[in-house]
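Quick note —
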Amino acid sequence: MRVLFISSGNSINGISPIIYAQGQSLINKGIRVKYYTIRGKGIKGYLSNISRLKEHLKNNNYDIVHAHYSLSAIIATLAMAKPIVVSLMGSDVQAKRWFRVILWFFYAISWDSIIVKSDDMKSTLGLKNTLVIPNGVNLDLFVPLDKKNCQAKLNWDNSIRHILFAANPSRKEKNFQLATQSMELFTNKTILLHTLSQVDNELMPFHFNAADVVILTSLWEGSPNVIKEAMACNCPIVSTDVGDVSWLLGNLPGHFISSFEPEDFSMNINNALDFSDKTSRTSGRLRIVELGLDSQIVASRIIEIYKKEIK
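Predicted structure written out below.
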């Protein structure tokens, strides 16, 4: 089976590591995946790719076109791609209602299947036939490692506590302000907040395992990969109740759901630090396995969708 992955290529590293990793999990299952990136920002930038993509589709034979994010899917539709499987990643579903109406229109006229990452996204989108398939986790990459060794590799001082905000703080939906406000409530100066931006995916396990606590302060999410990856490394976690986070974390010790109040979030960080002192690591990895979120299991589910849509 030949599959074309279409997505934005505007980031510094080109294709999103999340999308690339999903493609690689399909390749491991014997699917032939080619990545096609759309260059240019905004509506005008995306529209400029139509003729190039149309020519590519004309000169190559694919069984399925799998578009990631709504704008990529719209461009694929206008380039006459068929059949189209669309993965909506979060931001496109959280857009204003008029944009969701546009998504409904394209689904009605062209899109064969829509995948979203959480039940919350499905409810917001408002399409009954939407398929809920969270992104999987590469359990061969994201593994528990020795904390002190990881801190040494990253040159982190092992005499202080480390809180990891595993996202780019410039992204508004990540709500970095809540993280800083929560940290300001700590009078203990031996606690340090780390942020991440453009870190190679291969290095992410070292950051997770070096941290005493991983935090997510987002205003909204679909099914945040950072939570699943941190769980696969057995990290204590504090998160706002967004997307499918409550379902992911379950009621496992070392996982804390917080409100958007800095006092509450700070208190939960302190609880997570106490847990880290006593127990060090969680059993989050086992829960990821129990939930069927190994990337290879998720790949099998996606392949079943492809088979259904191939006429």
